Amino acid sequence: MKPSAFRYVVPADLQSAVHARAANYDSAVLSGGQSLIPTMNFRLSHPDVVIDLRLLDELDYVRTDPSYVRVGAMTRQRTLEFDDSAYRANPLIRQTLQNVAHPVIRNRGTVGGSLAHADPAAELPCLITTLRGELVAHGLDGPRKIPAADFFQFIFTTALEPDELLVEAAFPVLDPGEGWAFCEFARRHGDFALSAVACTVKIGPGGAIQRARLGACGIASTPVVLAECEALLVGNKPSEELFAEVARQAVSSIEATDEPEAQRRYRRHLLDGLVRRALEQAIQRTGARV
Amino acid sequence: MSTDTSSMRAVAGDYEVDDLVAVTMTVNGTAVEAKIPARMLLSDFLRHELRLTGTHVGCEHGVCGACTVHLGGRPTRSCLTLAVQADGCEIRTVEGLADFDGTLHPVQQSFRECHALQCGFCTPGFMMSVAGLLEEGIGNDLSDSELREHLAGNLCRCTGYQNIVAATRKAIDLRDGKEG
Amino acid sequence: MSTRQFGERVQRNEDDRLIRGQGRFVDDIPLEGALHGAFVRSPHPHARIVSIDTSAAAAYPGVHKVYTHEDLGPLDVLMPLLIPHPCITHGRTQYPLAHGEVFYGGQAVAFVVADDRYTAEDAAALVDVRYEPLPVEIDIERATEGGAPLVHSDVPNNVAAQFVQRSGDAEAAFAKADHITSIRVQVDRSTAAPMECLATAARWDEVSGELTVWAATQTPIGLRGALSSLFELDENYVRVIAPDVGGGFGPKILFPYSNEIMVPLAARELHRPVKWIEDRGENFVNMSQERTQIHYIDLAATSDGRVIGLRDRFIHDTGAFIPYGIAVAQVASTSIASSYRIPNIEVEFSCVYTPTVPVTPYRGCGRPHANFAIERAMDQLAQELGIDRFEIRRRNFIPPEEFPYAREGLIFADGLPVKMDSGEYDRCLTALEEALDVPAFRAEQEAARAQGRILGLGMAFYVEGTGLGPYEGGQVRVHPITGKIFVNTGLTTQGQGHKTTWAQIVADQMGVDSSEVIVVEGDTGVFDWGCATFASRSAVVAGNAIHKTAIKARQMVLQVAANMLEAGPDDLDLADGRVFVRGSGDRGATLAEVATMSNPLRYAFNKAAASATQFAAAASSDGPPLPDGKRPGIEAQEYFSPPHATWAYGAHGAIIEIDPVTCNIDVRKYICVHDCGKMINPLIIEGQVAGGVAQGFGGAFYEHLDYGTDGVLKNASFMEFLMPYATEVPDMTIIHQETPSPINPLGVKGIGEAGTIPVPSTIASAVDDALASMGAPPVRSVPLSPAAIFAAMQASTVPA
Q: Do B64 and C196 touch (CB under 8 A)?
């Protein structure tokens, strides 16, 4: 379990990194390496060229503005997790990160690396998709903004062009009083989710749900926004009956796979329960009652 | 080593497949210089080039944690890190846990006192993870299940973890100057 | 007299090195100029090899040699069938490198030796092997049916061995039974997954012609025997060392693995040390595995729940080969009646070949399987007869006064009759029942149910035949210069703490602190009589051998000291590293002085030695300096061979909560009551139990090797094979009970495997209890999973 040999390129800045990427379409981009190096050790991937972004300090930042928590792609996951300004602006980020692998992996793993890897069971892609965040790519023609919904295209496949690098992820901030929750089930602590649900809810002046964001991972080839569920929620007062209806709706979003029937039925049951749990937790955080 | 002549971009390094890469790092307080293949894992570099064999390799895909070392002060999987990525960095391994005079680090002392090791293969990685937790300021106000969440990430096949949980609590006490 | 150290919670002698990063596992051993090996392994579960082209690999820079079976010469022979039980009618073992056909995914086909492991892996990928895949059948029941694809074309119905054992008259018992309970249970394939994978390093000494092999093995003596034979060398010319070994749990008892032949061969031919360190990916398809059995068990009972007959017919999956014989199946078949009197038993098994990694013992070795069968059946019987689960066991326990209790006709895995030596089963079960506080739990369960929460209480009882022969030896030496005490055995240790427990035993006899006793084992160059570490046997067999040796060494010390101090041996005592005349205070000698004096010398190479030379006053006598029949020095060697296995036992209980959403299990309480006879070191014993429970819990709920119907292993990584972290293993309470074994001087029984055995039974019992009110079907196979629990809830007859 040793990587095969590769040409090793260490760009000193973003421009040269983009050029290196553009010149080597079959290259692998090494940021934290926590997803790439295992596959290289198993020789499931054997890139001809590895472009190591380790000198790109310019991509290591967390900046919070009134609309977004902007995170440079080379920011370690653990750094974002501990960032207090990010936590105040959107506490769901920290909660989600605490479900990503283990602290030792998060110490090294980068925010951009996880997003660009686009594992359909991964937490960060689920979060940014649910929040309608956006990603910033940088290519030979400069930067380009990509809505999260368009960024994740398939298993391990993103909208990044071959010459583009992911440089920033922008997570929308939550409104004051907005409730949030991230509910996941993995067989072992820190494993990829069997299923996970991210959600935010905002209660309007009359006690009805004014805005709801609900998304899930582990149920399709990309993270999914459960838009029909959100539509069911908005305008209604939170109730167990409503959540049950939303959960039933969510289950219909599960993509058909070739997994055994028993496993499929279990997954439906699991998602149903996680959706209800996430909604209950989020509502609780708004201070409202179900 | 070839240089990128197609543009004037700043490339700090561009190494052909067979090139060796010069690295410098500080390992357990000692400056180290070496020329190594880019694909060499940090775990192999520490073990076979520097002969620091206390760091063990249990899975080489980041699940077991036996290879955990501190890189830039943070616990890191050395099997999921290329040695070249550690260029210019500070590294601490299990060999650097005890004081120079041999006095054991609290985590070493507590692992021994609590019988938190059996075969001892996972132990260095486990201790490096716990040492990282101690430095992050983890406290004994955590419940057992919260503490176990912090310890998840290192596999042990011998102990059933019970004594590792106890040793971690004891190490926190020792750090805080409380005799357990 | 020093404080007795046997029975104390003594801290371990081995830890200081290990916590400082100074352990010496095989890959830690510095071998200057070592080359590194990598295997080419079959990706197919069964295939004919059409061709192998090694030219590209051989030409790759840094490669020293690429081996296929054609390069092995006299080593191109089938590896041994280590335990050739007569019932094995179709025993098959493999070649070091495949010979025209591969029988499981992972089988070694070629071996590349290169400058380093990176290069060796590059070159291994260049070996071009053409295969013609053959059909496979993975299901062990279908595999025995006519027309099923055969693993070995000359083995009909894939059956390697069949064996029936009878005790009493089961047929008559079933004829007169009031009630018969019949169930089918299944335990699935798993792997021991020690943290250190397999590892071999070898060096030939060009001067002496000696071969030294460092191996992550549980049996250096066994491996030396095999290597001496294969390489046609005198045993003196082969030294096998098991240095620090990173966990064993069974599979490291198998030998020789292909690597244990290829590495020494390459070292000899290439005149360089050679290393092969198994990586985790390989470990999943190379190191032997265990567990799959399907049992059809019937109990014949009276209406008040006394079991008068047991019939068990089971199929055991032995993988593609049967190098370790029927050991796992035989242990299962002779453990099936567990702690219960059951006077009439008929048990029959078939060992079936499947195109999978070969099966050899893994912690528990057939016992978890047998326990799952009998304990599931006892729970079922209790339910059918309306008797409490604790009560039905009580009614069937062998009572203390009936020991020794023989099961006439059943032969255990040591070739000796099953004879259970001692136990207080009822007391043990009562301790469990009290610790669980069953009435309080029932109230809590009821209250929780009203809130939609699902709680369950499970329990299981187990026995474990431990301490199998044939024998082990011990050696105790007192060194003349330092007076240090060295202890050697032929065993190995993979974490069990032998360096501490043996030291405790010896320290009591020699009057020193156990931290001053130096234990060296796992090195045939140091001590080479004995067998291996397996079957929870070390404390029983080697422990007693060392105890006998230490007594002998003590007597030697007393004898020599009696002469030196002009006192009777009975007036002397040993403490603090000295021997002294009792009550005299200063009349005594250090152990170093005694050791020196026990060895008549010609040369006074140091001050102490002067007192032992021929012209020293103390040495003056008319006879020969070393009288006939005496030996020089304080050095004793003794052996212990148990009359038969000694039977440890215990009871486990769990209180669990099932999350109705995730269907995950949260173990809220886990209690182990165990009895391993006299305890040498409770600290170490608790560690053994806790580790065993964790491994058992993995087997109950997490760990499963997922072979597809195409025979390909689908989860060969720690990412997908779910070995538990600290978050998945429950906290547990361990309660000790000590019923000495009457069949060995120390009164000890084994403990290594005990924790693992009843965990699947306990968890299954708890899940049944949790889901009983819903009318869910009982658990009949492990490992469980959330999906399996959900399926049981779905199949419930009562709406939740």
A: no
Give the chain A residue nearest C718 (alpha carbons): A191
pLDDT of residue B3: 45
For the cut 80, the answer to whether the pLDDT of residue C344 exceeds it is yes
CATH architecture assignment, domain C31-134+192-286? Alpha-Beta Complex (3.90)
Q: Inform me whether the C-beta atom of residue B62 falls under 8 Å from chain A C-beta atoms.
A: yes
> By C-alpha distance, which of C409, C336, C411, C404 is closest to C168?
C409
Q: Which of A81-85, A258-262, C478-482 has the highest mean pLDDT?
A: A81-85
Phi, psi angle pair for A120, to nearest 5°: -70, -10
Residues A206 and A106 in one domain: no
Residue B100 lies in a domain: no
**C neighbours by CB contacts (3+ pairs under 8 Å):** A, B
**CATH code (residue A198):** 3.30.390.50
Does the pLDDT of residue C482 top 90, yes or no?
no
Kindly indicate whether the domain formed by C469-640 is annotated with CATH number 3.30.365.10. Answer: yes
Residues 175-204 of C with CB under 8 A from A: none
State the average pLDDT over residues C390-402: 98
Structural domain range at position A63: 59-171
C321 contact partners, CB below 8 Å, separation of at least 6: C92, C93, C94, C103, C353, C358
Nearest to C760 by CA among C737, C775, C781: C781
Pair of tokens at residue C656:
């669990």
Banded pLDDT at C618 (limits 50, 70, 90) = low
CATH number of the domain that residue A35 is part of: 3.30.43.10
* Model confidence, pTM: 0.96
CA–CA dist A123, A184 (Å, integer): 9
Work out the pLDDT band at C623, boundaries 50, 70, 90.
confident
Structure tokens at C795: 């199949």
Answer yes or no: do C691 and B108 touch at CB < 8 A: no
Contacts of residue C521, defined as CB under 8 A and 6 or more positions apart, other chains included, come to C488, C489, C490, C491, C492, C493, C498, C527
Task: With CB atoms and an 8 Å threshold, state whether B149 touches C727.
Answer: yes
CB burial string B19-49: b at 16+ within 10 A, e below? bebebebebbeeebebebbbbbbbbbbbbbe
What are the distances in angstroms from CA C370 to CA C331, C336, C338, C360, C384?
A: 8, 5, 8, 16, 21
Considering the domain architecture, whether residues B85 and B115 belong to the same structural domain is answered as no
Share of residues in chain C with pLDDT > 70 (%): 99
Q: Which amino acid is at B99?
A: D
The alpha carbon of residue C597 is apart from the nearest alpha carbon of chain B, in Å, by 37
Domain that holds residue B80: 2-95
Q: What is the pLDDT of residue A258?
A: 81
In a domain, B180, yes or no: no
* 8 Å CB contact of B39 and A6: yes
Q: Does domain C293-468+643-794 have CATH number 3.40.50.2020?
A: no
Q: What was the pLDDT predicted at B4?
A: 45
Summarised one tens digit per residue, pLDDT across range A116-156 is 999 999 999 999 999 999 999 999 999 999 999 999 999 99
Average pLDDT over residues A4-27: 94
- Name the domain boundary from B34, B64, B95: B95
User: Based on C-alpha coordinates, what's the Rg of chain B?
Assistant: 18
- Is residue A1, in this structure, part of any structural domain at all? no
Mean pLDDT of the C526-554 span:
96
pLDDT by residue (tens digit) across C277-323?
Answer: 999 999 999 999 999 999 999 999 999 999 999 999 999 999 999 99
Residues A257 and A186 in one domain: yes
Cα(C158)–Cα(C145) distance, rounded to whole angstroms? 9
DSSP letter assigned to residue C101:
E
Residues of B in contact with A107 (CB under 8 A): 74-76, 132
Decide if A216 is inside a domain: yes
Residues B23 and B89 reside in one and the same domain: yes
Q: Are C319 and C289 in contact (CB under 8 A)?
A: yes
